[in-house]
Every structure is written in structure tokens, then in C-alpha cells.
Amino acid sequence: MTRPLIAAAAQFASRIGDLGANFDEHRAWVHSARAHDADLLVFPELSLAGHHGAEALLDVAIRRTDKRLLDLSREAGEMILVVGFIEEGPGAQFYNAAAVLKAGRLIYLHRKINLPSYGRLVETKYYAQGRFVDTHAIGEDWRLGLLICADLWNPALVHMAFLHGATLLVAPISSGVEAVGEGFDNPAGWAATMHFYSMMYGAPSIMANRVGTEENLTFWGGSRILDAFGQPLAVAGDGPELITAELDYGQLRQARAMLPTVRDSNLALVAREMTRLTDTLGVPDIIRHAE
Fold it and tell me: The pTM is what?
């Protein structure tokens, strides 16, 4: 049997736009996670820049090959890191991105797709939109489905990640209590969302949030690691904290045998209906859609 995967999530308060201080903070959490023999360490969304780091966009954006990123990964040894940053891509396009790093190499990158522009969130002002949902193998059995924060509020993106073979959902987030608006309970919403996805798709999940206050947002922490039945293995409080848990692939096999959501997804039907929906909504005459 595959040995358990030791997963970790680090939650803390990034310094807005201070790359140097944030790299130092990351190194401290890397050393702490290594002391727990972690195989995988997940940092929050935009962990190197801060939630409002894009207000100094040209000063904090870095390329995916930035030496500091690779050096951070070398310090982690064989431990895999998921690090949030503002990526400067080709043609001076800027992305809210998460890098997957191992042994001094970038092994995968996800660019956030679902950029929120509601409540107190204005990401479309700064970032280009990611265009792909994919997964990346980090072992014989474990394949990351990596999505960033609001990506998970588009269930179709999560569904695609699992149909691409994900066996572990990783969610760096930056969730403030006031982000959406009065009456919307972000902490409860995220708890329900992570439970639902792990339970529905029979896969463990890791959510890493930040803490502290940045301008008009109060970040509540609550990072968590869930098992393949959606049960919490570790849940952080509202302060800086490292949480760890062992993830068992044998349990994932059991969960998917009991509830075969991935197996029973009818790809041909989904593709057909999405094409039909696109064709219908693309017709200027809205009467056709009403029919």
C-alpha cells in the first residue's frame, strides 16, 4: 500500500507588497513543515504579495522562474510547495497564480480563472484571466487538482479538475469576513464548500487561508485539511498556525467505490449539453432561449 501523504497548510498574515519580508516568512514556515516531515506544504493565495499586493503591481509581480522562488524550493528539499504570487507572464500580462515547486524546480503553475469583481473584491482591475483547468501528478497515486479561491465557487471548474484525474483538491484562498457583503457568511461557506467537494468526489482536500487585517478586510484563517469522506483532519484557528495531517490513499479508494461520482460522470452528455447551451445563448434572439 502507498504510504500516507503528510500534508501541511501554513496560515499567516502577509505583508502587503513586501516581497523580501514575505520570502523570509515563507522560509520560516518551510522549516517548520520540514520538522513535521511534511511531503506537501500549501501557502495561502497571493502569499508572497498580500491580498492587496496588486496595488503595487509593477513592484511585486515576478516571473515564474524567479530565483527567489526556486531558492525557497531548494530549502524545502523534497517537500512540494504551493506558493501564491503575482506572476508576470509573457507580454506583460499579470496573473494571480500559484506555483507548485519541488527540489528547486517549478513543476506546475495554475493561473486563477474565476476573478471576482463583487463586494470588496476587484481582481479584474489587475489580473488577466487564467484559461486552463488541469492537474499534476505528485506521486504514483496523488494528483493535484489546484484551484485558487473563487475558482471553487464555479463548480464546473472543480468538476473538470476531478475529471482530469485529481485525487487531491488543493485550494489556496484569501477570504475576508467582509469580502462579499453583509449577510454572507464566508467562514461557514468555505467549511460547507470544502466538505461538499471532498465528500462528493471522494478525495481529500487542503484549504489554506490567511489571517490578520489588510485595509478593509479581516481574514479569518480557518485553514483545514479534510479526508476523502469530507471529515476534517485538522482545522486552524484565527491566528498564525501550521496544520498537518496524514492522507490515506486507501481511504480514497474506499470512498470512490462507495460513491462513484467521477466514474458516473457522463462526459458525452456534458459535452453535448454545453455545446447546445453555447449555441443557444450565442443566438441574439433571446426568444429562442425562452422556447
Answer: 0.94
